[in-house]
Automatic annotation (TrEMBL):
PANTHER family membership: 6-PHOSPHOGLUCONOLACTONASE, 6-PHOSPHOGLUCONOLACTONASE-RELATED
One Pfam family matching this protein: Lactonase
EC assignment: 3.1.1.-
Family per record: Belongs to the cycloisomerase 2 family.
Annotated signal peptide: 1-18
Organism name: Thalassobellus suaedae
Protein name in the entry: Lactonase family protein
GO molecular function per UniProt: hydrolase activity
Keywords recorded for this protein, A-Z: Carbohydrate metabolism, Glucose metabolism, Hydrolase, Signal
Length: 352
């Protein structure tokens, strides 16, 4: 009888461990936070638990995985700007590997290519972007390419970048452009200084690309809007422009993050000020979107959000209220329902 009880206890423990997946949290270390934190996320219940400091490091405001999920890379919005690599230990804590210059002030975003051998960092205050090669041991090499966008009459604020196959796209909030680069040999060459002309200073911040690469959706920080583009034989064309705000909202707002659902039928964006997540239904044939929901984030200043690996939950990092809110996603409608939240010091980036 006792052996059966022990076996049942072991099976329950293994089952609970299997349900949990780690969530790493990038933060601002301005008196409340100490660095990168880790939580356990239950993919069945949507519950977050077991908050731990994964590593002490300065202002890791954006973080990303290596392709094999053995390493984590983080920008540091510290004086001078840098980007660091960390190895994930067996207990989920992080081991510092190395640090290199971001080649610009205020690095705010990092992403990797599909092969996992290159990283690109966007420097907001520096108005530049840097490309790095990644060694087999997970360490970052010094930048192989640096793009500087400031001119005599324009102030750049590079805010995010993504590789897509043999292309690279960089969003510049200051110059109102989405640059397109193409890989030639081992270097990226500018193909288009902006894929389409943007008017009225929208401030393109983050963007998402469909899996087939035919559609790009940009969330505009100043314009409180999403601009939708379609790739054509001759470049790109704008197909849609939609506000992210509720028609009755009249306060200040700054858009932040944007993500597609796994099935690409729904598009989500975050509003800082209105403090909401806006939900759009997406037409997969022509790429246009239609707003179907605006839901409060149960916090203040939703800088970043993410979908869990199952695609059943959406989690929001509320910077000013220092909490992470969890929403369930209705698989039939894409709409969100608030489940719970947990306190975390100054969360600004969530990584599954």
């Amino acid at each position: 009888m006792k052996s059966n009880f022990l076996l049942l206890t072991l099976l329950i423990f293994i089952s609970c461990k299997a349900q949990n997946t780690p969530l790493y949290i990038g933060t601002y270390t301005d008196g409340y936070s100490e660095g990168i934190y880790k939580l356990d996320f239950n993919q069945n219940t949507g519950q977050l638990s077991n908050l731990q400091l994964a590593i002490s490091t300065q202002n890791p405001s954006f973080i990303t995985y290596s392709r094999n999920k053995k390493y984590i890379y983080a920008v540091s919005e510290s004086l001078g700007g840098s980007v660091s690599s960390f190895k994930i230990r067996e207990n989920g804590h992080l081991k510092f590997l190395n640090k290199v210059s971001s080649n610009g002030e205020g690095p705010c975003h990092i992403s990797l290519n599909r092969q996992g051998n290159k990283a690109v960092v966007s420097n907001y205050r520096g108005g530049s972007a840097s490309i790095y090669s990644i060694a087999r041991d997970g360490k970052l090499n010094d930048a192989t390419q640096i793009f500087n966008y400031n001119t005599d009459d324009k102030v750049s604020h590079a805010h995010s970048a993504q590789f897509f196959r043999d292309e690279l796209y960089i969003a510049d909030l200051g110059i109102n452009a989405l640059y397109q680069y193409k890989l030639k040999g081992d270097t990226y060459e500018l193909a288009l200084p902006t894929i389409v002309e943007m008017t009225e200073n929208p401030g393109p911040r983050h963007f998402t690309i469909t899996k087939n690469g035919l559609f790009i959706y940009i969330i505009n920080e100043y314009g409180n809007s999403i601009t939708s583009f379609k790739k054509t034989e001759n470049g790109f064309e704008q197909i849609d422009y939609d506000t992210t705000l509720d028609k009755n909202y009249e306060g200040n707002n700054s858009c932040a993050d944007i993500h597609l659902s796994r099935n690409e039928l729904y598009l989500y964006g975050s509003n800082r000020g209105e403090n909401s997540i806006v939900v759009f239904k997406r037409n997969k044939f022509n790429g246009t979107i239609q707003k179907i929901q605006t839901v409060p984030v149960h916090g203040d200043w939703p800088r970043n959000f993410t979908l869990d690996p199952s695609g059943k939950f959406l989690l929001v990092a509320n910077q000013k209220s220092q909490n992470i809110s969890v929403f369930s996603i209705n698989s039939s409608t894409g709409k969100l329902s608030f489940l719970n939240d947990v306190k975390v010091p100054r969360p600004v980036c969530l990584l599954f």
